[in-house]
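note to self: the first set is below, dont mix up w the second
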Amino acid sequence: MTYTVEIGAAPINEECAQLGQTEDFETINRLEVRLYRAALLAKYGVPPEGVTLRAKANAHDFGTYRELVVQIDDAAKDDPAAADYLSQVEDGLFSWLCAGFAPPITYGPGRSADFGGRTFDDIVRGAMLTTRPRPDGSFFPSDNETLHRNLRAAFPDLVPDCLKDAAPRYVVVENAGYVGERDVHEETERAAAEDWMTQTYTAAEVETLHVAVAYDHAGHRTYELL
């Protein structure tokens, strides 16, 4: 038996398609719910085992509408990871911007709704570009680091080519800044690279071997990490 919590069709403070009012409601509603799921994945990451974020169809006098639900399998109901994920996502998001998404659909006067001819893939790629790291490897605002990482993990096939070439790469380097630099380890996150360095080298070795973490971006390397 599963436990299901309804989340809604769009972030709480955003407009959304209205059954019986919005033109081409089914198309807009399906796209909006699918994007809301992507936004929650950006904010909170891929659900743990036994937890599913999915669209649920509901019958109404005017037709069928869909909304996002979080579903926990019976086998996972006592899993702390499942309970923690549920507690994060069940209240939904306040706005699209909370997840690095620009509002994907513009609602005009009357029944109109315009998504600019963009597909789901286009909009998710746009969020990845919006949240991407700056040339020095830092993120602004800082929340973008989590959003960007989660989007790449949830939708690896949608990562734009320009971001594949410039994927964050933090490199532990010996003899850093001197002739004969030697790369010894790399990570996609700065904290992981720094943790590896401190676990591998003593403080004395860091000093004598000139060990440091560098940020490598599209072939350009810097040690000036923010």
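second set (the one i keep forgetting abt)
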Amino acid sequence: MSLLDRLLHLSPLDAFAVFLLLAGWQAFGFWIEREGARKPSVTVLMMAERRAWMVQMVTRQPRIFDATILSTLRQATSFFASTVVLAIGGVLALIGNAEQIGGVAEELGAHATPVIYQVKLGFVALLLTESFLKFVWSNRLFGYCAVVMAAVPNDPDDPEALPRAARAAELNIRAAWNFNRGLRAIYVALAALAWLIGPLPLILASVVVFWVIWAREYRSQTHAILSQR
């Protein structure tokens, strides 16, 4: 059975639920990363802190402290990338045992063929794969940032010091963006697991996940601290 034939087994409500999840995911990502908003997100507020970090690095001697922080950030990306790989392996294993998953889902009120559960689990695997790719690229960007930081002259009066530090800051910001995108992809993948029960649980899980993402970016204690002037 082809992928198209499998997708034809899904209802219009399933299609709407998946569209809501994907559209909300992209819309929230765009909204969170907007610069110049009247109320910036935690992600945008941290951009200013990262730029300030690179300015302070220019005059800090020695720069072991900065290297340690960057190493910690790279370790975080490696940890999440490794964790996501394990999760992908687990989901792929479940796809091979779709009948057992169907039995569990039926106990929760869902009724579908094993083929449908394979499609739904495949969707979760794709989301986790997107998360993995973001974490890997984030790790790579932090590596680029480390190289540019090492190229910043030790003399603060050197005309190349601040421009190189600014480039390091922008690389650091892009690395953080990809790290955050990887985390959001995990949130979305967790919401997608609710699709195993049905489209309505998927819609409900999507709303809950989007609320959690929004609250952490705009209503959290972290946001209040970073907004202080």
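remember for set 2: The mean pLDDT is 88.
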